[in-house]
Design a protein that fits this description.
This protein is mainly alpha-helical. Helices cover 58% and strands 6% of the residues.
Length: 657
């Protein structure tokens, strides 16, 4: 098919391309597709149903040479006639191919080999679409009540669109997958370069970001002042407007802009005062960011550790899903009798929806399509209640293992970066394989501590899940006071979860440094941070601002490059680098942007863990050491210079500066 081939050639040899080929010979004179029951397309308008039927309308279809021009409905008097008498004598080729002439019409209808009605149609998109101005809907079994021709056409178009869109999406991914991988590679390189270059540009970058925030606030103050002047001269006051639920109306009164001006001015003043009085701590934060960049540069393998965490999380989720499926299918299966069309006269006496045995012999029934189908698993009884409890236990185990895997990653990274900080002579004293050593040490000595911290977090998360479940169940019967109380409870649990995550993170760092149990490490970390609360706040906000800018930079660069490339707006590219022809150019662009965000988040999460670890090490270094020969400082020379401290030189030797 598709090529001319000599008769003496053996099967399997390549055939030459035939440009005159027009498709299979048997259907060349039947270019249109007729749907037996277009109203069944209405039931297939949701995504799940469409997918179950292969993105097609769940009704028989046949190729025809021309669409029906008149309406026709099979009459009960024609049930006893043959297909040839009803269809073939009228030159109607609307039955499926191969239907014999002498088959009874009733049998052909029951087996859905021939249509039970025809509607006047016109060809469009290679299919027969009924006329939308034809309002008579046949009253036959299988046609839902209160339906219209427009609904049937709409359902058919929806199914065609779903199938067409899915094919186009697949084609776009097939055409652009390698360019998407290139975009993700660019995101990886940009993320790594941003982290490594922070040792050089952290100070200027933080300064530019702070000045940018001040500039935005200053412009906001100026804009609010200009709007306030205009409205003041016009005499627009809130006393004239009064109270209204239209919030946009308040933008036309002077008091709104005056209040915004005051708020922005206060924020600007507070920020300036903080910069003046906290400049020393900002310098310390910048020095720690530079030191974290050096640490990541010395241990590049740490940047890829999130892949290990990702794989472990997938394993935990897959194991839980398998156990949940086994539990869900552990009940007693129930089978019932089912028929596709119970409104047929031959199906009225059939006990539909009654229990049946699927292994028994099929029933001799005149009801077409009658079968014993699976309905579900028994949901009552002691065994089922036990299974439900096991499902709850499984969800608890899922949360616990997921939190443990995340805790393992944090402790391993903390151990690797702590070995960098506590190396007196860097990089000579840094272990050869710090990440592998930290991973082995964590699994051998700290598994129980991580599990205990993960359990505390899991209990809070389970409490939130139970609260959300209760809120969902009783939402319709709640009064305003109950909703307010429920909202307060959910807010408190959310805050508690955030606090426990913060405490666990720092506890894992102390575990990696000293190897003590979870409770002691959590207490020591919390007290250490409380003694240096100002430094904690400054470092946290500076780091958040810097990492936010880094994510914005990486995602923005990848998004802009992807947009110009996939839309063909980069001139001068050779043929090998031309953008592919796509149906939806935004699809690879959004995929590249999402992938770039995930990659940047993974890299910057490692960097954030490095900053937190070095910060706790720095605080411990300040409290436990004094720069003497017995207790020298382990911090970098830049931090020593900022703090005005130094280590004593060994006798008879001068320390290199």
């Amino acid at each position: 098919m598709g090529g001319k081939q000599d008769g003496e050639e053996a099967y399997g040899k390549p055939a030459k391309y035939d440009p005159s080929f027009q498709g299979p010979i048997k259907n060349r004179d039947k270019p249109y597709l007729l749907y037996f029951n277009i109203f069944s397309c209405i039931l297939a308008t949701n995504v799940i149903t469409v997918a179950e039927h292969g993105l097609q309308c769940p009704t028989p279809q046949v190729c025809v040479s021309s669409c029906p021009k008149t309406s026709w409905i099979v009459s009960p008097s024609e049930y006893s006639l043959t297909v040839g008498d009803v269809f073939y004598t009228k030159n109607w080729t609307f039955c499926l191919p191969g239907v014999p002439w002498n088959m009874p019409v009733l049998q052909s209808l029951q087996q859905e080999l021939c249509p039970s009605f025809l509607l006047p149609s016109s060809p469009a998109l290679g299919r027969c679409f009924p006329w939308d101005n034809y309002t008579t809907v046949p009253e036959l079994p299988g046609i839902p009540s209160n339906t219209s021709i427009i609904q049937g056409i709409s359902g058919l178009v929806d199914s065609l669109n779903a199938r067409d869109i899915s094919i186009k999406i697949f084609e776009d991914f097939a055409q652009s997958w390698y360019w998407i991988l290139v975009a993700l590679g660019v995101a990886l390189v940009l993320s790594m370069l941003f982290i490594l270059l922070l040792r050089l540009v952290a100070g200027p970058l933080v300064l530019v970001l702070i000045l940018g925030v001040l500039g935005v606030l200053a412009y906001g103050i100026y804009h609010c002042w200009k709007e306030y002047q205009v409205l003041r001269d016009m005499g627009a006051s809130i006393t004239q407007l009064g109270f209204t639920i239209n919030l946009s109306a308040y933008s036309s009164v002077q008091e709104t802009w005056l209040a915004a001006l005051i708020v922005l001015a206060v924020l600007e003043g507070v920020l300036l005062l903080l910069l003046i009085f906290l400049r020393q701590r900002i310098r310390i934060a910048i020095a720690l960011l530079q030191e974290a960049s050096r640490a990541v540069g010395q241990m590049m393998s740490t940047t890829f550790y999130p892949l290990v965490t990702f794989v472990l999380l997938l394993i935990c989720i897959a194991y839980w899903a398998m156990i949940a499926l086994y539990l869900a299918t552990s009940g007693q299966p129930q089978y019932v009798l089912w028929a596709p069309n119970v409104s047929l006269p031959s199906c009225e006496k059939v006990p539909v929806n009654t229990s049946c045995d699927p292994m028994a012999q099929p029933m001799n029934s005149s009801c077409p399509g009658l079968m014993c189908v699976f309905q579900g698993y028994l949901s009552t009884g002691l065994v089922q209640r036990s299974l439900f409890n096991l499902q709850i236990y499984g969800i608890l185990g899922l949360f616990w293992t997921l939190n443990w895997v995340l805790a393992l990653g944090q402790c391993v990274l903390a151990g690797a970066f702590a070995s960098f900080y506590w190396a007196l002579n860097k990089p000579r004293d840094i272990p050869t394989f710090p990440l592998c050593a930290a991973f082995t040490r964590t699994l051998r000595y700290h598994t129980g501590s991580l599990a205990f911290g993960a359990l505390i977090l899991t209990l809070v998360q389970m409490a939130r899940v139970i609260l959300e479940y209760i809120d969902h169940k009783v939402r319709g019967a709640q009064n305003p006071m109950a909703r307010c109380i429920m909202c307060c409870f959910k807010c408190c649990l959310w805050c508690l979860e955030k606090f426990i995550k913060f405490l666990n993170r720092n506890a894992y760092i102390m575990i990696a440094i000293y190897g003590k149990n979870f409770c002691v490490s959590a207490k020591n970390a919390f007290m250490l941070l409380m003694r240096n609360i100002v430094r904690v706040v400054v470092l946290d906000k500076v780091t958040d601002l810097l990492l936010f800018f880094g994510k914005l930079l990486v995602v923005g660069c990848v998004g802009i490059l992807s947009f110009f490339f996939f839309t063909g707006r980069i001139p001068g590219l050779s043929k090998e680098f031309n953008s592919p022809h796509l149906n939806y150019y935004w699809l690879p662009i959004m995929t590249s942007i999402l992938g770039a965000y995930v990659i940047a988040s993974g890299f910057f999460s490692v960097f954030g863990m490095c900053v937190d670890t070095l910060f706790l090490c720095f605080l411990e270094d300040l409290e436990r050491n004094d720069g003497s020969l017995d207790r020298p400082y382990y911090m970098s020379k830049a931090l020593l210079k900022i703090l005005g401290k130094k280590n004593e030189a060994p006798p008879g030797k001068k320390r290199k500066k």
